[in-house]
What does this fold into?
Amino acid sequence: MLKIAWSPKYCHPLPEGHRFPMEKYNLIPEQLLYEGTVTDSNFFSPESLEDKWIVNTHKLDYVQKLKSQQLSKSEIRKTGFPLSEALVDREVHIMHGSVQSALYALEYGIAMNVAGGTHHAFTDRGEGFCLLNDIAITANYLLDNNLSKKILVVDLDVHQGNGTAEIFQNDNRVFTFSMHGASNYPMHKEQSDLDIGLPDKIEDSAYLKLLNDHFLPLIDQVEPDFILYQSGVDVLATDKLGRLGLSLQGCKERDKVVLECAAKNEIPIMCCMGGGYSEKISHIIEAHSNTFRLAQEIFF
It folds into this structure.
């Protein structure tokens, strides 16, 4: 059974006009239920992740300042969010959603978090709509509980997974692969194990060729026993922040490459949704929903 993390806490309200589309976290489950791709039984509600698994990845001082609302104005500004206790609580639930989804993936082959993909959070700070890094926290949870020995992070959000790269820069148990807009945020890129910088306006065929050429060989090269997939849909041509040129079908084909590879090689995979900022919310929901549809088709 496809297990999917979702909580009402994911939909924390933001000030009117804020460019981060919180409403998508309600609309994705509604769409999937309406069309019959999933039922209520597919969803589980994450809890608050224990602090010990958070400080296993993030520096204690940063976590304490975050939870006590003592970040400086500059630190808050870099996150892109107006800091609040409820927002931090939301983030901690998202962390548990990804960890629990990874545990379900070990059981069922795949599991998904409607939120997550918070790849801009570093060991000691948040950036770019990310306070804590669910990809890194989940990877460390699996490794430290002897549930995995080698993890491949596949980050196909339009923005480089700079926080994830920094966290694992000296850990050869995690291979970080990021394929992102070369001239997009962040301006200063960290060094992943493999970075593929993409030109603005790249379209489906060129994008998919690069993905096949660089991602597929990593299975034999890295020999992962678990994949963490950041499936941001800000690669769409309609995205306000993305600057790439993918169609909805191209974005779906991207997901198909990753999910089919995991299934064929019998590598458990946890998918987190990442970014998406198209003008029309329907484009965001359709692109994200395709990832869930493919998971059902390919694995079940």
The chain is about 40% helix and 10% strand. The mean pLDDT is 97. The radius of gyration is 17 Å.
